[in-house]
Specification:
Blueprint: H1 2-17, H2 19-26, E1 41-45, H3 50-61, E2 65-70, H4 73-87, E3 92-96, H5 102-115, E4 121-124, H6 142-164, E5 168-173, H7 196-217, E6 223-229, H8 242-250, H9 258-270, E7 281-283, E8 286-287, H10 297-311
Parallel strand pairs: 1-2, 1-4, 2-3, 4-5, 5-6, 6-7
Antiparallel strand pairs: 7-8
Helix pairs in contact: 3-4, 3-9, 5-6, 6-7, 7-10
Length: 316
């Protein structure tokens, strides 16, 4: 036992000594564009913390009018106040949006459309991970509701504004975890079998498939869309797992910061010349490969139609 503890201590010591080199390797790509956003309007979901907050900060620094759409308005106001002070941009606004509640999503969209005439960038950033089994007020499993259906509905409600403001972009945060995902049409709500780790993976696959199908349907409109893996980031996303919280703390020197995690979202929102890559999946600021399931056009179309049925909407 003492030998094992000694080896573990030596290994951890080695990791921490070499941390700067390892951190540099895992830091990933950086958004290099100098595009400015004066006069542009941006909506970012879940931007009161983590990656979303850093994304909002950078877009505000570039002059955009930024809407932080989040469930916790007090936390959102605190983040907005910090961003306004940091960027000297007073146009950082907070609006309530609960992605687990379709009534809240519709109320947000109605208020935003009454307030703004344009929308140039929509970043579907918010998400949940490893939640114990539960259903939303609408009867949807929580991962499916927040990570996929909520953003599906929000994009639907704001799409007319995006088209009218073209060129415009939709950025959907997914994850490398989509490789372990599967769209279980026979049990979308996890009523027959539920594993909270796989539920997250399934929802992240849904994000990639949504992006793929959305790009197909938006051809010729001037609106393009991209799916993003931000990397393994030190954030609050793992708060529902005690084990992952411990691991995140132990290996925090090797995880991406929220600033680093925001870079690929920023790249897909801002980089020039990405239009031909609409519908693709990005990691570390470059297009990368997706799982075979994420390339299945029939699954993407079927998920689209099922999502419309569940939400009671019809895309034109």
């Amino acid at each position: 036992m003492l030998v094992v503890l000694g080896l573990l201590t030596s290994f951890l010591s080695f990791l921490y000594v070499t941390a700067p080199s390892i951190r540099k390797f895992f830091a990933g790509g950086v958004c290099r564009t100098n595009v400015q956003l004066s006069g542009k309007v941006v909506v970012i979901t879940g931007a009161n913390t983590g990656i979303g907050k850093e994304t909002a900060r950078e877009l505000a620094r570039r002059g955009a009018r930024v809407y932080i759409a989040c469930r916790d308005v007090l936390k959102g106001e605190s983040a907005a106040s910090e961003i306004r002070a940091d960027t000297k941009n007073s146009q950082v606004l907070v609006r309530k949006l609960d992605l687990s509640d379709t009534k809240s999503i519709r109320a947000f969209a109605e208020g935003f459309l009454a307030e703004e005439k344009q929308l140039h960038i929509l970043i579907n950033n918010a998400g949940v991970m490893l939640c114990p089994y539960s259903k939303t007020a609408d009867g949807f499993e929580t991962h499916l509701a927040v990570n996929h259906l909520g953003h599906f509905l929000l994009t639907h409600l704001l799409l007319g504004q995006l088209k009218d403001s073209a060129p415009a972009r939709v950025v959907n945060l997914s994850s490398v975890a989509h490789h372990a995902g599967k769209i279980r049409f026979h049990d979308l709500q996890g009523e027959k079998y539920y594993n909270r780790g796989f539920a997250y993976c399934h929802s992240k696959l849904a994000n990639v498939l949504f992006t793929r199908e959305l790009a197909k349907r938006l051809k010729g409109t001037g609106v393009t869309t991209y799916a993003v893996h931000p990397g393994i980031v030190r954030s609050e996303l793992v708060r529902h797992s005690f084990l992952l919280c411990l691991l995140w703390r132990l290996f925090s020197p090797f995880l991406k910061t929220t600033w680093e995690g925001a870079q690929t979202s920023l790249h897909c929102a801002l980089a020039e010349g990405l239009e031909p890559l609409s519908g693709k999946y990005f990691s570390d600021c470059k297009k990368t490969w997706v799982s075979p399931r994420a390339r299945n056009n029939k699954t993407a179309e079927r998920l689209w139609n099922v999502s419309c049925e569940l939400l009671g909407i019809r895309w034109e």
